[in-house]
Amino acid sequence: MRDLRKFRILVFVAAVLWMAALMQILMTRFWINQNAFTQAFARNRITVLKEETRKENQDLRNRAEGNRCVVGELDGKLDSGEREKLVAELFKTLGGGIVLSPTQTLWGDTYVAYGYTIGIKNRKKVNGRAINLNVALSYDEERNRTRVILGTPLINSDF
Q: Which conformational region is residue 155 in: left (phi greater than 0), alpha (psi within -120 to 50 degrees), or beta?
């Protein structure tokens, strides 16, 4: 009798914990779908470029794959440490982290990083790893501005 009561309590506690975990996943997905990209940009002082964002999302390469992008800019040029910190903060704001090391994809003034979050349903496999966050940073010397593109699951257009 006593063992049966303990078992029922354990089952109840396990069910409550599973429901809490499921609710967290669902709420994260809802939050990210509603406003996460612009919030991630705002927290990192990145100005959202609405017209550029519209163009990115209308690009057939992104539309065909169901990708979503947000484009923004920062003043000045970021050094490698600042780039890594910015990408880590963007991914953290979205509840994710870096999957592929950004130092492997560093070309001159262009920096690309890949990440993953449970908050975004769509994903791709890159080098055998699940990816659903993609950030590209590029520096414009003439304007002294760093362009930031955040896409999910990938950015298929030029950056």
A: beta
